[in-house]
Amino acid sequence: MDAEQQAARFRELHQQVCAEIGKVLVGQQAVVDGALCGLLTGGHILLEGVPGLGKTLLVRTLGQVTQLSFSRVQFTPDLMPADIVGTNLLQQDEHGGRRFAFSRGPVFAQILLADEINRATPKTQSALLEAMQEQQVTVGGTAYPLPEPYVVLATQNPIDLEGTYPLPEAQLDRFLLKLQVPFPPAADLAQILDRTTGAVPEPPQAVLDGPTILSLRQTVREAVYVQPAVRDYAIRLIVNSHPELDTPSAQVKEFVRFGASPRGGQALLLAAKVRALLAGRFNVAVDDLRAVAPDALRHRLILNFEGDAAGVSSDQVIDDLLAVTPTPAQVG
Asked: What architecture (CATH level 2) is domain 3-214?
């Protein structure tokens, strides 16, 4: 299969998945595209929005249309690490002997929904770090690999912060994208009410399976070219997000404590490659990078006290960063 056929297959399958999700979820196309971007690049996704906007529904539906094993964990303050990764249990065999056997936790699924992840204690949150980065968990000195493909989709509520524990920077950096889930417009709200108070809608059909997803991930990485000038623009965005460096952004200098890590650059390029493929192109454009920059960087820019006190958002800083960072055309 040549590159043209791979790209056409990528777009066709993406459209089919979106159509099946649309049978259940109304609107929120940008959020759906972001979640699929994580699935098709091997990146984890953080969904932020007030309750009732369909975050959990989206992830559950994604599990239905992909033929992947799905698991949901409702994070609470009393949740323990062993409740997620599993633990060694003492078992008795048919001969009366006793031995320890590992009982797998819900993390051993291909799609893991970490619902309200910021309600768990830091100790429990950190239990996901190894799973997200290494795709394995270690219990009792033994490493247990997680199934392929594997992706974590976590949700958090930005308003009700009582009794919550903000995710540490190291864990936030493991998420490819942070997606803001907006309140639906009136037209979408009308469809939601009609669907949820009338006849039961048709269930979504499975479109993707594990081997197909792994093949599509390879297409993203190999079929789309990044010109050096475009790659250098992504590098400038990352470098200019650091206040201690010679950044042209006044808002970065004034309101940012820590800038984006190299993982931010990886997220920019991978998400931009997906966007280019969906547009029928085999090269990443500057507009692709600028379009995905808010989702790729908003959780990687850590604001300082002045930024918090002034009520500045990471998205405002990113807007300023994009405005003052020269594009390849302006540089050369």
From this structure: 3-Layer(aba) Sandwich (3.40)
